[in-house]
Amino acid sequence: MTDILNVVCMEMSNSTKSNIALTIDGLSKSYGEVKAIRSLSFTAEKGEIFGIIGPDGAGKTTLFRILTTLILADKGSATIEGMDIVKDYKQIRQHIGYMPGKFSLYQDMTVEENLKFFATLFGNTIEDNYDLIKDIYQQIEPFKKRRAGKLSGGMKQKLALSCALIHRPNVLFLDEPTTGVDPVSRKEFWDILLRLKKEGITIIVSTPYMDEASLCDRIALIQDGSFLDIDTPKGIIAKFKQELFSVRTDNMHKLLKDLKCYEDISTSYSFGKDYHVTFINSVDEKRFINYLSQRGHSDIYFKKISPNVEDCFMLLSRKIQP
């Protein structure tokens, strides 16, 4: 019986390992005195959309450049589908696709020339994996003779994604792919990613847009090179235990100062046209509104709301501040 249990446990362990697309353990990287990433660790499962969510300068691009074998980490290790990013970098490059944040295709070459060039690099033709990029490429095919540098932001984005997919990678790295494009193009791009997920491709995507977090299976919130939390979007939101309120008045500039002077305020920060606030104790709504009125505020809007990922990020980032 003991032998049977050992075999079952080994099979379960092997099955779990075989489902892992990416593992990183304690990755760190510094540029002189600047610590870009600090002992980062996580795993991503095959076929998962895993989001790295954080502001500019948080360390997302450095992490991606390490994982795509472009630079070396100072410490730590990582494997992609069981291959070590240092020892097996040549093999890894055949199995991954990478779309950097900055448009880096040949701007003097046409759309068609760029795609053929990248297919040739991997020993393929456009026809070999056309089924994978068909839905994307058909949107830019009418402009296939146009130079890449003359495309709109959304079209450049689709061309870069097509080039990253042309060799049918198992793992796709997308570094802030929707930055600088219009809302319609952003939605179209995420629709494309959801279709690619159905093809079994593991997608590691970074973004500064907190609203895109809900489109990922799991996310890691990153700030100053460190992960604040790793969980599903719903899991992260569920950890927000404080009551959250939205407040707005006729004088938003003065409101910020007055919120900081209110003795029972725990946190307050700008969120769109409102301020989001939490309180140290249960809020006395009448007392709080009266406080604002006495300081000259009118048209007071005050309402309890549900937190989102951005609220969680703001709370977590404040907790680690020195």
Which superfamily, in CATH terms, is the homologous superfamily of the largest domain? P-loop containing nucleotide triphosphate hydrolases
Termini separation: 54 Å
Order of helices and strands: HEEEHEEHEHHHEHEEEHEHEEHEH
CATH topology assignment of the largest domain: Rossmann fold
State the major sheet.
6 strands, mixed
User: Strand order across the biggest sheet?
Assistant: 6-7-8-3-9-10
Q: Residue share in helices?
A: 25-40%
How many distinct beta strands?
14
* Rg over alpha carbons: 24 Å
Q: Sum up the overall morphology in one term.
A: elongated
Work out the helix count: 11
CATH class of the largest domain: Alpha Beta
Number of domains: 2
Q: What low-confidence regions span 5 or more consecutive residues with pLDDT below 50?
A: 1-5, 7-16
**Any idea what the CATH architecture of the largest domain is?**
3-Layer(aba) Sandwich
> Beta fraction of the residues?
25-35%
Helix/sheet category:
alpha/beta
The averaged pLDDT comes out at 91
Provide a concise account of the structure shown.
Helix content is 37%, strand content 27%.
Tags for this model:
single chain, 322 residues, alpha/beta, Rossmann fold, Alpha-Beta Plaits, 2 domains, six-stranded mixed β-sheet, four-stranded antiparallel β-sheet, 11 helices, 14 strands, elongated, disordered N terminus
